[in-house]
TrEMBL record:
It comes from the Bacteria. One of its GO terms (cellular component) is cytoplasm. Belongs to the acetyltransferase family. RimJ subfamily. PANTHER family: [RIBOSOMAL PROTEIN US5]-ALANINE N-ACETYLTRANSFERASE (PTHR43792:SF8), GNAT FAMILY, PUTATIVE (AFU_ORTHOLOGUE AFUA_3G00765)-RELATED-RELATED (PTHR43792). Keywords: Acyltransferase, Transferase. The keyword Acyltransferase applies. GO terms for molecular function: protein-N-terminal-alanine acetyltransferase activity. InterPro entries: Acyl_CoA_acyltransferase (IPR016181), GNAT_dom (IPR000182), N-acetyltransferase (IPR051531). This is Ribosomal-protein-alanine N-acetyltransferase. Residues 17-179 form the N-acetyltransferase domain.
Amino acid sequence: MNAKIDTSDVQLETKRLLLRPWQITDLKDFNEYASQPGVGEMAGWLAHQSMEESKHILQMFIQEKKTFAIELKSNHKVIGSIGIEEDRLANDPAFQDVYGREIGYVLNRDYWGQGIMCEAVLRVIEYCFKDLGYDYLLCGYFLKNHQSARVNQKCGFQFLRNQDFHTRFDTIEPGHLNIMWNQKQRI
């Protein structure tokens, strides 16, 4: 069942990162990575074609209150996002008595391969389990997205099932849907 989420007043820190609510002043940084070819496509959306498109989506992030900006502490640049999305298993009878969400993420390709996304995902997992008391988290990826598969693996998600993901550009991508249970809730 979908757990409640409101990230509007939440800031999470790691060694290198500040995970915080989006601000309209993040537009330039957001557009920089959202317009990079090959970034959004790995998450199911096309690269942004204009600053206006990025502004529209950024305003949506701000209003929905479920997506963190990933900011580098060293230079205050926003380099990605991590959302605590609606749970695609919310209507599954096996999940009616437990609460969870699904994590989705994207990172500026200039920062791939540095362990940044694992650092962000692990901090969000900790927040969801310790602070919010979620029972489980889901995280999925397209089979062709080897980087996201590694993040899932390194963060401890376990295979749940094969999943066809419907993209925003009208394709169906085969993938894996993974799960992580809150161990304190299962004892």
